[in-house]
Amino acid sequence: MKVLVATQKPFAKAAVDGIRKIVEENGHTLALLEKYTETAELLAAVADADALIVRSDKVTAEVVEAARKLKIVVRAGAGFDNLDLAACTAHNVVAMNTPGQNSNAVAELALGLMIFMNRNQFTPGTGSELKGKTLGIQAYGNVGRLVGQLAMGFGMKVLAFDPYLPSEKIVATGAQVAPSLEALYENSDFVSLHIPATPETRGSIGRNLVSRMPKGGCLINTARKEVINEDELFDLLCEREDLRYVADVAPDRAAEFAEKFGKRYFGTPKKMGAETAEANINAGLAAANQICKFFATGDRTFQLNK
Ligand code: 3PG
Which H/E stretch holds residue 136? Predict the structure, then answer.
């Protein structure tokens, strides 16, 4: 079988080497399409691929249709808003992700961004510490729980809101349960977002929630830029000169945010939460193993389009 790794944002070399080893040891061949800029390149490369590994690369209906031999696509990572699951299902393509494999990298970045913002983006001036501050975590999944754990290590009080998780599971980690999403924002110096981008969450973080934050509040977004209502957030930051926003990845209106809000805003130019060698290796190798297991035994653990 031909396994194609198609990554606009390539994996670390160690991850690619590891993927190749797994694929070849299982009797398959590996093809690489890295740093491509045109969809046409992806369409051509998938034409004879039996399996596909991607990161945030968009696997649209057009891509699935062009991939006539495709049997499985694995998103090496957690968020799968880049996969057209309906198109995969329509073409009998199994779609999977690799949940948890890059969570630690994202969680560490969330903490790093908090320190960065509380230390004036590493420019001269008096900053403040994380110890004693309250961190609100919106969605307590693989990343959210790790962020909570790291924050507790810094002596922060952790509040969490997750409607899909029983309260006991949150409490067992040492975090407190916010009774509502509104209460999470009202009681947190920092709010860290760990929600996926879905039709329900897109544009859901705006004035109604962020305006509830106490003085000096800071919103940390290492989830998806699409969950933010950028216009509302922009207007709110104009009105409330104490509020701050830090984003991985930068909003569409990044230039305006940077110009208007100075050190109250920071956005990464490219999504870098999972940009560590460890995360690349964990997610990339997991994707390769999942594909080989699928071909060998039909295993469909982590299938998304059931
Ligand atoms: C994820 O959903 O796993 C992260 O956002 C990582 O995305 P990336 O592989 O494009 O860096």
Answer: strand 134-138
Output the furthest CA–CA distance in the chain (Å, rounded): 61
Neighbours of 171 (CB within 10 A): 12
Nearest atom of ligand 1 to the alpha carbon of 97 = 3
Classify domain 2-101+275-297 at the CATH topology level: Rossmann fold (3.40.50)
Pick from 5, 102, 147 the residue to mutate for probing ligand 1's pocket: most ligand atoms within 8 Å of its CB.
Answer: 102
In this predicted model, what pLDDT tens digit does every residue of 202-238 receive, in sequence order? 999 999 999 999 999 999 999 999 999 999 999 999 9
Q: What is the pLDDT of residues 75-110, one digit of tens each?
A: 999 999 999 999 999 999 999 999 999 999 999 999
pTM of the complete model:
0.96
**Considering the domain 103-267 in this protein, what is its CATH number?**
3.40.50.720
Going by the DSSP 8-state scheme, the letter that residue 83 receives in this structure is: B
Residue 250 Cα to ligand 1 middle (Å): 14
Work out which ligand 1 atom sits closest to the CA atom of 102.
3
**Fold identical between 2-101+275-297 and 103-267?**
yes
